[in-house]
Amino acid sequence: MMRAAAVTSARPAARLSPVRRVKNLLMGALILLATLLVVAPLILIFVYLLREGLGALNLDFFTRTPAPEGEAGGGLLNAIAGSLEMLAMASVIGVLVGVAGGIFLAEYPRHPLMPTVRMLSDVLAGIPAIVMGLVAYSLIVLRFGFSGLAGALALGFLMIPIVVRTTEEVLKLVPLSVREAGLSLGLPQWVVILNIVLPAAAGGIVTGVMLALARVAGEAAPLLFTAFGNSSVNLDPTRPMSALPLEIYRGATSAYDENQRLAKAGALLLITLIFLTSLLARRASRVKR
Amino acid sequence: MTPLLSTSDVNIFYGEKQAVRGVNLEVQRGSVNALIGPSGCGKTTFLRAINRMHDLTPGARVTGQILLDGEDVYGPDVDPVTMRRRVGMVFQKPNPFPTMSVFDNVVSGLKLAGVRDSRRLMDVAERSLRGAALWEEVKDRLRMPATGLSGGQQQRLCIARALAVEPEILLMDEPTSALDPASTARIEDLMTDLKKVTTIIIVTHNMHQAARVSDTTSFFLNGDLVEHGVTDQLFTSPRDGRTEAYVTGRFG
């Protein structure tokens, strides 16, 4: 066994026959080509945004609100603040409902409502973002007008199925014997789940929440007719609020170069944030395992 | 003296399949009782019925009567949570709670049930760890993660954790099968000491272990309790031919 492994893995490339060496090189080149094809769009987008938007990523960008249409200067402070606040509110909804749903699916598989909840969660995952915006529109905007809260609600709904799925999966990774040990101490099932099983899965749940955040941070569609947008900085969740994707949409469809440049800088910031969030999520999951 | 545990006509089913048939068994206070038999003979299934672990298994069903100190474990008014508190369990593989320190693991049964008195928790932790012969090894690292201990130490930690809630009876499901011989010897020594504070039922694959540690032994085969008796007698002069064949190593 040991010998066989040593023979196959340690054989030097020089000992291969010429035909096999050529085949080896050819296949290696094909794999490299395929890899490049996959990552090329990402690299191209990033390079494009760096070239077009980096110039506008200055101090003004982070400290000022957009200049009037067609004028130079200005920044996206309104959008940055709005995005951060709405994402924070969305996380509260996404985490509370999502983690609860994940616990239900993973820990109560024999509950009669389980198949229904599983199906609802799967359906929720397939609902287009703009439809989720419509839901928040009819629930809140029709009665109370455009608001950051309505936008956060739409984003939170989008996060729920992602958080449900990851929570369920990481809870199932916690060994059954850990639950049995808790129950055998005479602890009620809910105590075992909340105090023993959930902490053991915390790293994975944090990863899921961050991936869900990264997923909804770039959504413009559900915000168009909920948060609506705001050209000045607004932290009041009951009033219209701006967000990075909204400013990108408005800037990119503008006729003026200045606005377009701001939109590209916003896009650069957005994908950088999403990229960093995904990296952090990977780290969080690695620390726990 | 009335037995601490007595079962009458216990049958256990997984769906249609019957895993344990009509078991009548009595266990005396302060004794060590071994359940032996080949794989799949129903000994672990029977053990898990005593603290109602089958409540969690879909399709599992227990009939007959199990009395713990005269009280029906499956009685209609009995809360399985309260019942499990009286019946401790140690599992095949060490399973300390992964995110907790050594100390938190030991006192988890009390702390998570609402005991906040830190003085009392410390006393219980020390007494339980001494009871599990682990105190000297871990007294300086009570706040370290429990997963940093060796396998044998983790298993003794699990024993301490079970002892902390002062169970009337301690179920051990092949507690040394994942451990090296030195750790196994320590836990076997420990069992003799534990008889002073509790009663032990141990499932073991290892007949020598049963012979070394137990006062009485029950031999299971294909879901039946074939023979139950004083350990020395059961190993030296078994009444049943099948028991003799098993303990002399002719099968199993």
Automatic annotation (TrEMBL), chain A:
Family matches, as InterPro entries: MetI-like (IPR000515), MetI-like_sf (IPR035906), Phosphate_PstA (IPR005672), Phosphate_transprt_permease (IPR051408)
Subcellular location: Cell membrane
Any single GO BP term: phosphate ion transmembrane transport
Principal location: membrane
Keywords associated with the record: Cell membrane, Membrane, Phosphate transport, Transmembrane, Transmembrane helix, Transport
GO molecular function terms noted in the UniProt entry: phosphate transmembrane transporter activity
SUPFAM superfamilies: MetI-like
Gene3D superfamilies named in the record: MetI-like
Domain named ABC transmembrane type-1: residues: 80-281
Transmembrane segments: 25-50, 86-108, 120-140, 146-164, 185-214, 262-281
Alphabetical list of CDD domains matching this protein: TM_PBP2
Domain of life (superkingdom): Bacteria
A Pfam family hit: BPD_transp_1
Keyword Transmembrane: yes
The keyword 4Fe-4S appears for this protein: no
Cellular component aspect of the GO annotation: plasma membrane
Family to which the UniProt record says this protein belongs: Belongs to the binding-protein-dependent transport system permease family. CysTW subfamily.
NCBIfam families, alphabetized: 3a0107s02c
Protein name: Phosphate transport system permease protein PstA
Organism: Deinococcus phoenicis
UniProtKB/TrEMBL annotation, chain B:
SUPFAM superfamilies given in the database record: P-loop containing nucleoside triphosphate hydrolases
UniProt GO molecular function: ATP binding; ATP hydrolysis activity; phosphate transmembrane transporter activity
InterPro entries, alphabetized: AAA+_ATPase, ABC_transporter-like_ATP-bd, ABC_transporter-like_CS, P-loop_NTPase, PstB-like
GO BP: phosphate ion transmembrane transport
Annotated keywords: ATP-binding, Nucleotide-binding, Transport
PROSITE patterns named in the record: ABC_TRANSPORTER_1, ABC_TRANSPORTER_2
Entry protein name: Phosphate ABC transporter ATPase
Gene coding for it: pstB
